[in-house]
């Protein structure tokens, strides 16, 4: 297992400001998985993919056998993790599941992106809590820092109960409320004190 929990933004949430200019990220909640001098990578965790069923995806990937957990197969929502590599799947999950390719993002949240992980999940041997996303949000070196400086994102903690326990449609509002911020009072103008 790889450990990436050593830089400031890793394991945090980015919340899109209400004035976000890029429509792909309107009210986006992004769980940050990597941030270093090579760039940044995060998973949008509140954007369900319309018309994409986890059960159909599993069938297309041919990862299911006769030993299938029907509850997981038909209840796990597929999210759009971002516009980069939109066919690549990731499982963002609780720390009770790990494989050799699992990345520990923070102590209670890990990410795995292998077909073997999907097999385990479909057979009911996966993590207690999980999200399945296709694609990711990526930034080149310095790009995210500039966007933060330009007031495009709020940064906040990523408690597991918010990441896994709040419905996708309510994540942005819930995260803003937890910060004690009134969204109507947010300004898109950056300034210096």
Apparent shape: globular
| Category by helix and strand content | alpha+beta
**Mean pLDDT across residues:** 91
Helical element count? 6
Q: From the 3D structure, determine the CATH topology.
A: VC0467-like
Which class in CATH terms?
Alpha Beta
Work out the oligomeric state of the chains in this entry. single chain
Q: Rg from C-alpha positions?
A: 17 Å
How would you characterize the largest beta sheet?
A: 11 strands, mixed
**Extended strand count:** 11
Order of helices and strands: EEEEEHHEEEEHEHEHH
Superfamily at the CATH H level? VC0467-like
CATH architecture: 3-Layer(aba) Sandwich
Helix content: 10-25%
Number of individual domains = 1
Low-confidence segments: none
Beta percentage is: 25-35%
Ends apart, CA distance between termini? 42 Å
Protein name: UPF0301 protein A11S_2242
GO cellular component, one term: cytosol
Pfam families: DUF179 (PF02622)
Organism: Micavibrio aeruginosavorus EPB
Care to give the gist of this entry?
It comes from Micavibrio aeruginosavorus EPB. With 193 residues, the chain is of the alpha+beta class.
């Amino acid at each position: 297992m790889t450990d990436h929990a050593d830089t400031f933004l890793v394991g945090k949430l980015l919340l899109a400001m209400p004035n976000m200019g890029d429509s792909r990220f309107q009210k986006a909640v992004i769980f940050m998985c990597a941030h270093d001098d090579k760039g940044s990578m995060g998973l949008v965790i509140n954007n369900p993919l319309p018309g994409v069923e986890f059960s159909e995806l599993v069938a297309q990937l041919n990862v299911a056998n006769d030993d299938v957990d029907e509850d997981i197969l038909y209840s796990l929502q597929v999210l759009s993790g971002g516009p980069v590599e939109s066919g690549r799947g990731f499982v963002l999950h609780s720390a009770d599941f790990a494989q050799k390719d699992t990345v520990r993002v923070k102590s209670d949240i890990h990410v795995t992106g292998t077909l073997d992980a999907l097999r385990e999940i479909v057979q009911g041997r996966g993590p207690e809590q999980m999200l399945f996303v296709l694609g990711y949000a990526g930034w080149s070196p310095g790009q995210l820092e500039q966007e933060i400086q330009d007031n495009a994102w709020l940064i906040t903690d990523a408690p597991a109960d918010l990441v896994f326990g709040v419905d996708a449609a309510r994540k942005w509002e819930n995260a803003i409320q937890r910060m004690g911020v009134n969204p109507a009072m947010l300004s898109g103008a950056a300034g210096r004190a």
